[in-house]
Amino acid sequence: MWIFSPEMDNAIKYNYSFEILEGYTFERKITFKSYIGFLFSLRLKYPRSHPLNLIAKILLNSLYGRFGMNEISIRYEILSKEEFKETSENLILDFIEFEDHVLVGLKFEENEDSSNISIGIAAAITAYSRIFMSKFKNNPNINLYYTDTDSIYTDLKLDESFIDQKLLGKLKLEYFCEEAVFLAPKIYCLKTEKGLIKKVKGLKDTSSLTLNSFYWTDVKWSEIK
Q1: Where is the signal peptide (predicted)?
Q2: DSSP string, 41-91
Q3: What is the tens place of the pLDDT at every residue in 142-168?
Q4: Could you give the CA distance from residue 171 to residue 108 in angstroms, rounded to a whole number?
C-alpha cells in the first residue's frame, strides 16, 4: 500500500502502525494558490444556479484528478486498408472506415518531458482532505450520520473555528435538517425548512420521490432508471 507521509503521521495519532519498505520524495511548493483563489472567488460571487458557479465548481473539483490520471494520449492517422490490418489491435482506440482508407485513433504514451501528470500533487490533495476530515470521523464526541469527501451530517454544534461561509478550507453550514434518511453513498434525503433535498447517484429526475421513498415504503427502486 502506498500512503502520503503526512497522512501516515496523522494515522499514527489514531494508533495505526506502519512498516516503511520504500518511498518517493517530492519537492514541496505552493503551486495553484492564485488559480484556486480565483475560481473560489467566482463561486462566492455567483449563486449556485448561475453557470459560472457550476463551471468554477467543476474546474476546482477536477483539478487533482487530472494529475492522477493514467496518461494515454491519442493521435489520428489516415491509413490504407492494408496498413490498418497490419496495425496492432492493442494500439487502436478508435477508427472510422472510408472507401479505401481508415481514420485510426492510435494510443501512444507521451515522454516525461511533455507529461502533465503528477502523482505527488494528486496524492497530496486527496490526502490532506482526508486528514482534515479525520478530525470529525475519528472524534468519539461527534454523532456522524453521513459523510462524503468534504461534508458531514451531525447533530452536534461544531466549534466555530471549523466554520466560515466565505473562507476557503473551512466548513460551510449548509442546512438545518428536521429529518434525514441516509441509505448509501450519495443516496439520501434531507427535510429542511426550505423543502426536501434528494440525492440519488445516477438518477437525474428525483421529482417523483418523497421522503417516504427513502424509507423503502412507496417505491420500487429496481424500476427507477
Answers
A1: none
A2: HHHHHS-TTSHHHHHHHHHHHHHHHHHTS---EEEEEEEEHHHHHHS-GGG
A3: 899 999 888 999 998 888 898 998 888
A4: 42
Q: Coil, helix or strand for 225?
A: coil
Residues 6+ apart with CB under 8 A from 143: 154, 155, 156
Instruction: Enter the C-alpha cell of residue 171.
Output: 466548513
Helices and strands counted in the chain (H then E): 5, 8
> How far apart, in whole angstroms, are the C-alpha atoms of residue 150 and residue 130?
9
Q: Where are the domains of the chain?
A: 5-69, 73-109, 141-223
pTM surpassing 0.85? no
CA distance linking residue 97 with residue 179, whole number of Å: 57
Residue 30 CA to residue 68 CA, distance in Å, equals: 18
Cβ(106)–Cβ(75) below 8 Å: yes
